[in-house]
Structure to design on (85 residues):
């Protein structure tokens, strides 16, 4: 998951399983930012994706394009990973 998404989720209210997934992730430096490699079942990834929905913008909040892009990239990865074969 992109670092911006991971940073947002660390500040969010997570349950114990989701917090453990983030804590056990491996940080990989990528240019100016980083990627957090996490191992979890698809249901946990979907839940984390739902929790970072505010990065796409909600009424009355400012949207930061880099955060929106990071969430979109994570959504694409989760969709590809969880897609039925």
């Amino acid at each position: 998951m992109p670092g911006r998404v991971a940073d947002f989720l660390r500040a969010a209210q997570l349950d114990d399983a989701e917090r453990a997934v983030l804590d056990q992730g491996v940080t990989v430096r990528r240019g100016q930012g980083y990627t957090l490699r996490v191992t979890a079942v698809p249901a946990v990834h979907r839940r984390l994706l739902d929790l970072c929905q505010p990065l796409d913008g909600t009424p009355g909040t400012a949207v930061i394009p880099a955060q929106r892009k990071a969430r979109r990239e994570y959504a694409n990865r989760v969709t590809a990973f969880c897609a039925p074969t």
Notes: Helices lie at 3-11, 16-23, 42-51, 65-82. The chain has a mean pLDDT of 88. Strands lie at 26-30, 33-37.
